[in-house]
Amino acid sequence: xxxxxxxxxxxxxxxxxxxxxxxxxxxxxxxxxxxxxxxxxxxxxxxxxxxxxxxxxxxxxxxxxxxxxxxxxxxxxxxxxxxxxxxxxxxxxxxxxxxxxxxxxxxxxxxxxxxxxxxxxxxxxxxxxxxxxxxxxxxxxxxxxxxxxxxxxxxxxxxxxxxxxxxxxxxxxxxxxxxxxxxxxxxxxxxxxxxxxxxxxxxxxxxxxxxxxxxxxxxxxxxxxxxxxxxxxxxxxxxxxxxxxxxxxxxxxxxxxxxxxxxxxxxxxxxxxxxxxxxxxxxxxxxxxxxxxxxxxxxxxxxxxxxxxxxxxxxxxxxxxxxxxxxxxxxxxxxxxxxxxxxxxxxxxxxxxxxxxxxxxxxxxxxxxxxxxxxxxxxxxxxxxxxxxxxxxxxxxxxxxxxxxxxxxxxxxxxxxxxxxxxxxxxxxxxxxxxxxxxxxxxxxxxxxxxxxxxxxxxxxxxxxxxxxxxxxx
Length: 474
Description:
Vacuolar effluxer which mediate the efflux of amino acids resulting from autophagic degradation. The release of autophagic amino acids allows the maintenance of protein synthesis and viability during nitrogen starvation. By secondary structure, this protein is mainly alpha-helical. It has 17 helices and 2 strands.
């Protein structure tokens, strides 16, 4: 039933975050907006007043996402280490799931342009809850892997001397990748289905803004209903009990402070986090630039953008299983597979930069669709193998704490790429912006190869034994 949560929550990302929310927020803000130079006159795309501030309606959704990213960092840290104790991991997971899904359903209640601010608030709440839920969801990977029947059997064989420690780690790696890949593929599959239904609703209602809101609300209703399977059937995977005298509001912050102070004992783990920070920024920047280029250069309409939004997760579903097959076929480690996928990802910005030749390289609109398919084939597996590799490098009993760091690293990088590429492409061809993600995708390749996974696993095992709450004075 762990997999059921991906089926429940991932459609929110596919339907709301990636496809419909930015369009809806901009449309609602524009409907209540005013001309930039004459704020007494209404217009389609100008400025809107939020409190005492006047904001560009085209940037309203970006501001909402930025606020949610900041709040996510605060929430991730506040709940991280706390969720590793008792049954709080599942409790927190379900709490954020229901908060996020209800906030998403309430998009259907925004019936007038004057309530554009409410849509922004609902976006912030749902995005924070979605991110927090996935941090807790990822944290189940190491524990589910250790408790898997195949891994337990190999561990017993290691203890009896019939199999080696390396074979045990290989079994863990294989099971982790299987769990992660299945969850990614099932999540994308559910997302595609919901997005197709949302597109059908939009077409039936004349592609009005409210029809898109109903599509968002549908993803929230799906999230809410399917979450009950996780609530009922997912084992809580309880951690160590928490001392009753601790301050619940400050515990996770103190625990994280201790961990960061002792980071030198987990060099391989933090080397990988740095690599992931750069990789995540590079991949998210490619997405942002591609959408911008599609609108500006190829003038894609909403229907064409919707087709693109369906093609990417559908390709990601196929790519997730394709790369899992390749890994097993050639007996590759997660590290080597992630390196190959990341190297393949580099070809996207390279292809766009080739377009300066004027021959090919996103020069013609027809090139958009195969490029999106190729991008999707990398995307799902890229995310899946990255979190599996990280899961192998974190100390036992501190899964939620360390995945909160992973979540912060992932989300906090999302502002850097757009900021730098914004400066690059201002008054220049959009293609120049792809130089930045090209560099951001190449540099981490060397960092990943530098990570000693075997040493990192042993360091994490030693860290979990030497740094319990009691030994660290917590």
